[in-house]
Design a protein that fits this description.
The protein contains two helices and five strands, in the order E-H-E-E-E-E-H. The protein is α+β, with helices and mostly antiparallel strands and about 140 residues long. It is globular, with a radius of gyration of 15 Å.
Length: about 140
Amino acid sequence: MKEFETLHLVKGEDLNHHGTLFAARAAAWLVEAGFATVACEHGNPDEIVMRNLQNMSFSKPVKKGSVVKFAGRVVYAGNTSLIVAVTAQDAISGDAAIEGYITFVTIDSDTGKAKPHQVVLDSTTDEEEKRLREKAQQLIQHRI
């Protein structure tokens, strides 16, 4: 699937008491990147709601002054649900920093009821995309 990118500059107000990117701010940016991804793929942001954020994890601390690139792509397409994998890396060094999976559901904007979408996963030979899709499948299988 196509990858959609956003950039954020980490400023003082984005930091926690350790002087690194506050997890809640990172989660907000992760969800924003995920929403932009699914909105572009589905084509109508009014028909999209977030269901959950899973497995957000940091692989390295993110410091003030870093430019972080968030990249999202749809890695699972159910009948009414879509899972977006979002990865974040230092845009300058390329070092991986954050990863998470966000489930969105398509709804009828008038009734609020679940509505099928028309997003279909394409085939891929990209190893990173295969890894992300496999991880999404594992998350689906272990949902309670």
